[in-house]
Amino acid sequence: MKNIVNMLLFLVVFSVGSLAQEKGSVLIQNATLMTITDGIIENGDVLIVDGVITGIGTDLSAPIGVEVVNGTGKYVMPGIIDAHSHLNTVSTNEARNPVTAEVTMEESINPNSVSIYRAVAGGVTSIHLMHGSANVIGGQGETLKLRYGVSQDEMRFADAKRTIKFALGENPTRVHGQGNGIQPRTRMGVEQIIRSHFDEALDYRVRREAYLVAKEAYEGDRRGRRVPPVPVAKNLRYDVLNDIIDGEILVHCHSYRADEILMLMRVFNEYGIKNYTFQHANEAFKVAPEIAKNSAYTSVFADWWAYKFEVYYSTAYNATILNKNGVTNSINSDSNELIRHLNHEAAKTVRYGETSEADALKMITINPAIQLGIDKMVGSLEVGKHGDIAIWSGHPLSIYSKVQQTYIDGKKYFDMLTDPADMRIDVDSDDSYREAGFNTFIQGREEDACMSDVFQFIKQ
């Protein structure tokens, strides 16, 4: 009997813990609030109840049982959002065909990666986990909340828009044309792959819908006078492509060169595709007015280029030029190391081009939220939005500032002062503590993260 009672108590405690893991409540008082969309509030309070921001202002009171955090001298801003990440992927590329729209990152999430914790320690609360860039039309992405310690399913950002990865230029031509002897081998071929597959998808939809109508009529023919229709099998790849054309899936396209950016906008205009983002987009500054005219978005590096030939020509003023031309631009990491200090990457836009601090912060909060279709839920401090926030020791754009606490849905997932030190390293049982601490970080961009998993498939 005693064992049964103990087991019941364990289940109750476990259930309560699981629920608390999802939502939390906290009142942060007397801090400088960087709202992102409504200016700065000095000596302000922000109240999160059951995972949702319910109050922003001054002199707010905490409901009974809600933790109160003294924010005096500190800064509070919405959690950072990384629009391009391979942070905790299990598989990155399905590289055997130039078009793999049917595959998805949905089952390629590693919820146990210590890199999640490190990102949260940098104030990041959401990421866009992307397929690689081996394919012209690659797999579907997954938007995640970095709830470190939960299951794969619990990491998914509920009600986020569907996304997919396209890629232009050297990566798909190298993998398919040069590596496997199939189209595309040239940049011309990349465009033709996109056009031909969209055309095939549209033709499939007409045939598939006609078949379903005929099938229904045949099955409803009680007199048996109708001839059974020739089946048109369901095709997941074409279904996804049609969803792109219909605007149900947001495109994020790996791109570098200005000519290819112009090409994809022309193709998308012909097929009526809107609401898409050029990822990397190192030469986007050359065609910034055209990007703005097409209402396209960009998500760029602050100052990475020249790591391969097609990205040799770029500038640290890229983000500023895009911003000044009215393009909704974000700064992304594409790196498990840079994600830890995306605030520094955003700050570079202030140095290069004198972007305002307000616009710089938008590039790592509300702008990537817009690009991922989650801006109604996160990206700014507003009543009704999710309680995804970070408390900083100083101004978030200062190189001297550190994240002190990070909350996701009102639950604390990082605390600089109270978290055990061994949460911050990836420990091998055969390593000493010192060895483990010195062998865990990839510095900067030492590898092309978008091409992970693929090189073993390329013929030499």
Protein described:
The structure is a single chain. The chain is of the alpha/beta class. The chain is built from 13 helices and 17 strands. The protein has helices at about 1-20, 115-120, 150-155, 170-180, 185-220, 235-245, 260-270, 290-295, 320-325, 340-350, 355-360, 365-370, 435, and strands at about 25-35, 40-50, 50-55, 65-70, 75-80, 80-85, 125-130, 135-140, 140-145, 160-165, 250-255, 275-280, 295-300, 330, 390, 405-410, 410-415. The strands form 3 sheets. Strands 1, 2, 3, 4, 5, 15, 16 and 17 form an 8-stranded mixed sheet that branches. Strands 8-10-11-12-13-14 form a 6-stranded mixed sheet, sandwiched between helices. Strand 2 and strand 3 (about 50-55) form a beta hairpin. The protein is globular.
Helix/strand layout:
Blueprint: H1 2-22, E1 26-34, E2 40-49, E3 52-57, E4 67-70, E5 75-78, E6 80-85, H2 114-121, E7 124-129, E8 137-140, E9 142-145, H3 152-155, E10 162-167, H4 170-180, H5 187-219, H6 236-245, E11 249-255, H7 258-271, E12 276-280, H8 288-293, E13 297-300, H9 318-324, E14 329-331, H10 342-351, H11 357-362, H12 366-372, E15 389-392, E16 403-408, E17 411-415, H13 433-437
How would you summarize this macromolecular structure in one to three sentences?
Helices cover 31% and strands 20% of the residues.
